[in-house]
């Protein structure tokens, strides 16, 4: 693919293409995080000189024996020009912390990533971003609340940030796409197509990009989804957003790490209260005890964040029936799951009429099919 097809910040990178490859090179060093990278930048006139620095100078800067060994190995094994060619082939752009396109809120956090790999279009500085995270093992209630809240947020123009993981993360991305809004997936591995984790969400990642969003990571090509990468990934999810919404989380959950990062970054944390006897609600209920704002409606989040769309948001959007059958269904169907047999009994409509009405209402976006012949209001 010709380079002219890359986003403008690929070509207009303030460090120039010759220096950019050294930024990329340093991301291959596991022992050089944002803090040590910052120290290197202060110690050398350019990253090219830092890359070729003698080991004695690196020792003076406090590099450990392990860090020095890794540096020697990576400098020997990595061809930086070839790495740029691989990025171009995968249509992956790179944004350094010096670039104008680098997300402003992320730059404010403690030790922001010095470089982001991106497929798709980064959000503009004028966009409002909210992080939505939760358990991989979600309940029907968790899925319902994720769809309800994300739908409401999306309808008011918010861009949804999450981790492209299974469970609530995936539901948040899917609901954002269904609501015709952009969404951002942050990964704890390399973002080339063949490396997306989990593999079952690769197509979801492609759809996110196709619909104007992006997937990003601070990790270079080929980085596996090591367990240790995900807490670092979570600080980026929280750092991109005005606040973090936790839908469901067990007592020990990665979603709680994201919430912790948000608190450290002085960002708002919202939590959906849940059944006290449900393990997947222990984490969110504890967050509320610790000061997170309990929310059950998107309008509460918008109001708390002082977004101007909040005043226009209707906390309960009325669904208007279009015929007597829909009126009968809406008189009984609420946000709690209800079996089709129960609806037939309450409405006193024939089961055939109930099924036909529910199918049409689902197509109109008025109700949600929750599976197992259970339905609930969509908003």
Could you characterize the architecture of this molecule?
This protein is of the alpha/beta class and 379 residues long. The protein folds into 3 domains: 3-91, no CATH class; 129-312, Rossmann fold (3-Layer(aba) Sandwich); 324-377, Winged helix-like DNA-binding domain superfamily/Winged helix DNA-binding domain (Arc Repressor Mutant, subunit A), CATH 1.10.10. It is 44% helix and 13% strand. It has 18 helices and 12 strands. The strands form 2 sheets. The chain has a 9-stranded mixed β-sheet, sandwiched between helices. It has a 3-stranded antiparallel β-sheet with strand order 10-12-11. Helix 2 packs across helix 7 and helix 9 runs parallel beside helix 10 (168-178). The longest helix is centred in the middle third of the chain and has 16 residues, at 140-155. It is elongated. Mean pLDDT is 88; it is low at 1-15 and 310-317.
Termini separation comes to: 43 Å
Q: What radius of gyration results from the CA coordinates?
A: 24 Å
> In CATH's first tier, which class of the largest domain applies?
Alpha Beta
Q: From the helix content, strand content and strand pairing, which structural class follows?
A: alpha/beta
Shape: elongated
Question: What value does the average pLDDT take?
Answer: 88
| Residue windows where pLDDT falls under 50 for at least 5 positions | 1-15, 310-317
Total domains:
3
- Compute the number of strand runs: 12
Beta-strand percent range? 5-15%
The CATH architecture term of the largest domain is 3-Layer(aba) Sandwich
């Amino acid at each position: 693919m010709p380079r002219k097809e890359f986003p403008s910040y690929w070509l207009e990178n303030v460090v120039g293409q010759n220096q950019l490859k050294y930024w990329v090179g340093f991301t291959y060093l596991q022992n050089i995080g944002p803090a040590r990278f910052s120290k290197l930048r202060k110690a050398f006139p350019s990253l090219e000189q830092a890359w070729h620095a003698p080991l004695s100078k690196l020792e003076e800067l406090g590099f450990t024996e392990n860090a020095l060994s890794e540096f020697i190995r990576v400098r020997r094994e990595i061809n930086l020009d070839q790495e740029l060619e691989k990025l171009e082939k995968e249509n992956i752009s790179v944004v350094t912390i010096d670039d104008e396109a680098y997300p402003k809120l992320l730059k404010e956090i403690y030790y922001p990533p010095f470089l982001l790999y991106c497929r798709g279009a980064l959000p503009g500085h004028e966009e409002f971003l909210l992080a939505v995270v939760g358990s991989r093992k979600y309940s029907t209630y968790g899925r319902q609340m994720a769809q309800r809240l994300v739908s409401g947020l999306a309808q008011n123009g918010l861009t949804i940030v999450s981790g492209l993981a299974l469970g609530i993360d995936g539901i948040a991305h899917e609901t954002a796409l269904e609501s015709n809004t952009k969404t951002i997936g942050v990964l704890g591995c390399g973002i080339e197509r063949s490396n997306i984790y989990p593999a079952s969400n690769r197509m979801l990642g492609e759809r996110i990009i196709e619909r104007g969003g992006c997937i990003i990571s601070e990790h270079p090509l080929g980085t596996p989804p090591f367990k240790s990468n995900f807490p670092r990934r979570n600080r980026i999810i929280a750092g991109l957003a005005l606040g973090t919404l936790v839908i469901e989380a067990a007592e020990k959950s990665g979603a709680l790490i994201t919430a912790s990062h948000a608190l450290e970054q002085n960002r708002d944390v919202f939590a959906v209260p849940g059944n006290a006897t449900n393990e997947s609600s222990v984490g969110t209920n504890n967050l509320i005890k610790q000061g997170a704002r309990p929310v059950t409606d998107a309008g509460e989040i918008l109001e708390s964040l002082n977004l101007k769309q909040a005043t226009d948001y209707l906390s309960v959007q009325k669904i208007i029936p279009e015929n007597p059958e829909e009126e009968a269904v809406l008189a009984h169907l609420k946000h709690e799951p209800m079996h089709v047999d129960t609806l037939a009994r309450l409405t006193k409509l024939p089961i055939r009429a109930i099924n036909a009405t529910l199918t049409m209402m689902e197509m109109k976006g008025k109700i949600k099919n929750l599976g197992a012949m259970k339905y609930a209001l969509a908003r």
